[in-house]
Design goal:
Blueprint: H1 8-24, H2 27-36, H3 41-50, H4 71-82, H5 86-106, H6 109-120, E1 126-129, E2 145-149, E3 152-163, E4 170-176, E5 186-192, E6 198-203, E7 214-225, H7 237-273, E8 275-276, E9 279-280, H8 285-313, H9 319-343, H10 354-362, H11 372-383
Parallel strand pairs: 1-4
Antiparallel strand pairs: 2-3, 3-7, 4-5, 6-7, 8-9
The structure holds flavin-adenine dinucleotide (FAD).
Length: 387
């Protein structure tokens, strides 16, 4: 089904992304990131220079100013994921979708001026640190505290599973500044690399996304100045998180649709080429039926995602709608990838093949960004009339 949400500006931008991929996201680059467990800074800087990173940074701070029109970011995700470079897509997404928006929407003028120009060039990479060893879905159960002291806060605690946790320079950290678990007991602080007592723990070894770093963080009496309180107001952290989560969930939905599309394309190419019993794999009735299911699912995914992109651009994508998009898209993605792996036979299990890597990468889409169970909770609670 033809998609119609992109105009000629988006298509011209797509050419630029493709050109970047040809130069900076080759198989050798991907292998280097996988071996290092991270995307190197030079690649991130090159992405910024090419104009495919920093899309969400306002123009006055050196970015492209496209935070609300997520279609340009969607183009980046589509092309980078189709090129089999899921780790790069992850690294770009953390900066543009998870870190930068907190400064753009909620930062003070001084915070924006200090950080956004450097984030636009990838001289500063950001990350978002909410999850803790004992609290993921249940965010109000976090234990990291920020105690008010003269001129700032003393932060103690630990975070885990933090994407870009090794390579990032600036961390948006969800902390407790009050008692109990009321929404106003939480704040977001900016923690900088090099602050005394701020340590990066191990780089975690993951099932997929081997070229994108995920780490533990620990904080021991880290002094964080008042200037690093996001928005300059204490007790707003929970509300600030809730404001950006729809974007995070939409971005996962886009990645899921892009991976499903890529899986379909790889599988079509493979099954048209490979032969068994004297005919192409694509010619078996079962293969044709599987391919028909995959293609139809991909069409439905794009129709839904495109509608969500339009709603987001119009400022109308609600938390519940974003939650629906996230769980539904990632579950369809899993089905399409699984069918694609099966049609590749043994080669579908070999990580030299992009479908195998995409299959492994995709598993986390149903877990992070709020697990799909939590997404159903959000949607179900609204349907039941409970807030
Ligand atoms: C590769 C990777 C990258 C990540 N990146 C980041 C990051 O950049 N920043 C960050 O802050 N976090 C990040 N996370 C953390 C991620 O968001 C959490 O793992 C996720 O929210 C689930 O939390 P948890 O692991 O504590 O699982 P738990 O909350 O312990 O859940 C365990 C299981 O119980 C289910 N469950 C929990 N509560 C309910 C409920 N009320 N009803 C029904 N089922 C429930 C969950 O759905 C899940 O299936 C990342 C995780 C991974 C694996």
């Amino acid at each position: 089904m033809e998609r119609d949400i992109y105009d000629e500006d988006h298509e011209a931008f797509r050419d630029l992304v493709k050109d970047f991929i040809k130069r900076h996201a080759t198989n050798e680059d991907r292998e280097r990131w996988d071996a290092a467990g991270e995307v190197d800074r030079d690649t991130m800087r090159a992405a910024a220079e090419a104009g495919i990173l920093g899309l969400s940074v306002p123009e006055e701070f050196g970015g492209a100013g496209m935070l609300q029109d997520y279609r340009f970011r969607a183009v980046v995700n589509e092309e980078v994921i189709t090129a089999g470079a899921g780790s790069l897509a992850g690294a770009l997404g953390i900066q543009d979708d998870l870190a930068v928006p907190y400064l753009v929407h909620m930062g003070t003028d001084a915070q924006k001026e200090k950080w956004l120009p450097k984030m636009a060039t990838a001289d500063v990479l950001g990350a978002l640190a909410m999850t803790e060893p004992a609290a993921g879905s249940d965010l109000r159960g976090i234990k990291t505290t920020a105690k008010k002291v003269d001129g700032g806060y003393l932060v103690n605690g630990a975070k885990t599973f933090i994407s870009s946790g090794v390579t990032a320079d600036l961390f948006v950290v969800f902390v407790k500044t009050g008692e109990g678990d009321r929404p106003d007991a939480f704040s977001l602080l900016l923690l900088e690399n090099g602050m005394a007592g701020f340590d990066h723990g191990k780089k975690l070894h993951k099932m997929g996304f081997h070229g994108h770093d995920t780490a533990e963080l620990s904080f021991t009496d880290v002094f964080v100045p008042d200037d690093n309180l996001i928005g300059g107001e204490e007790g707003k952290g929970f509300v600030q998180l809730m404001m950006n989560l729809p974007l995070e969930r939409l971005s996962i939905g886009v990645s899921a649709a892009a991976a499903a599309q890529a899986a379909l394309d790889w599988t079509l190419a493979y099954t048209r080429d490979r032969e068994a019993f004297g005919q192409r794999i694509a010619d078996f009735q079962n293969s044709r039926f599987q391919l028909a299911d995959m293609a139809t699912t991909v069409d439905a995914l794009w129709a839904y995602i495109d509608r969500a992109l339009e709603a987001y651009a119009a400022g109308k994508l609600s938390a519940e709608e974003a939650a629906k998009v996230k769980f539904w898209a990632t579950e369809r993605e899993a089905e399409v990838l699984d069918a694609g792996v099966q049609l590749h036979g043994g080669y579908g299990y070999i990580t030299e093949y992009p479908i195998a890597r995409a299959f492994l990468d995709a598993r986390v889409h149903r877990i992070y960004g709020g697990s799909n169970e939590i997404m159903r909770e959000i949607v179900g609670r609204q349907l039941a009339g409970k807030r």
